[in-house]
Amino acid sequence: MSDLEGQQITEAQREALAAELSDMEGPQRAAAVEAIAHARAFGDLSENFEYHAAKNEQGLLEARIRKLRHRLQHAVIVEHTSTEQVGVGSIVEIEDEQGEKMEIEISSVGGVSPTSPLGSALMGASVGDGVDVPAPRGSWHAKVVAIRAST
Predict the structure, then answer these.
(1) pLDDT over 70 percentage in the chain
(2) How confident is the model at residue 5 (pLDDT cuts 50, 70, 90)?
(3) Are 122 and 144 in contact (CB under 8 A)?
(4) CATH number of 8-77
(5) CB atoms within 10 A of CB 60
(6) Which residues pair with 93 in a beta bridge?
(7) Comparing 93 with 108, which gets the higher pLDDT?
(8) What's the whole-model pTM score?
(9) Domain with CATH 1.10.287.180 in the chain
(10) Which sign, positive or negative, has the C-alpha torsion 116, 21, 27, 48?
């Protein structure tokens, strides 16, 4: 199964992805077509750097559009309102071994992925729980200080 299939996201995260997709399919796609048309005016396409760069940008844009559509079609919408256990959509305050605190959101969209080492270590944890997070230079320990649901 692809890492994009069945991703758990909140309704707010789905709306953010849909807004990004709408922007890409509208204004950004139109700008890419305009850039290609402008570059064609420079003449010979075989040695026209601007044309090739514009076509490359269009290809990257279309790939991102396909990826976003796929994500939205296969996403599993979850509503996580628990402040008792960490889940997708939770905003978690953790404290590391040096006493440094950080706040993270468990999210596949703009946060810490629930399948990442930190995300998977925190999933299901409660306030006061300690978790060990595997890392390339050795695992580190964090304590869950607070949990709140994202809005």
Answers:
(1) 94
(2) low
(3) yes
(4) 1.10.287.180
(5) 11
(6) 103, 146
(7) 93
(8) 0.70
(9) 8-77
(10) positive
Domain limits, CATH 3.10.50.30, in the chain: 90-149
Are residues 124 and 76 in contact, defined by beta-carbon separation less than 8 angstroms? no
Q: Please give the distance of CA 34 from its chain centroid, rounded to a whole number.
A: 29
Burial degree of 73 (CB within 10 A; 0-12, 13-18, 19+) = exposed
How many whole angstroms from its chain centre is CA 71?
Answer: 10
For domain 90-149, the CATH architecture is Roll (3.10)
Residue 134 reports pLDDT greater than 70:
yes
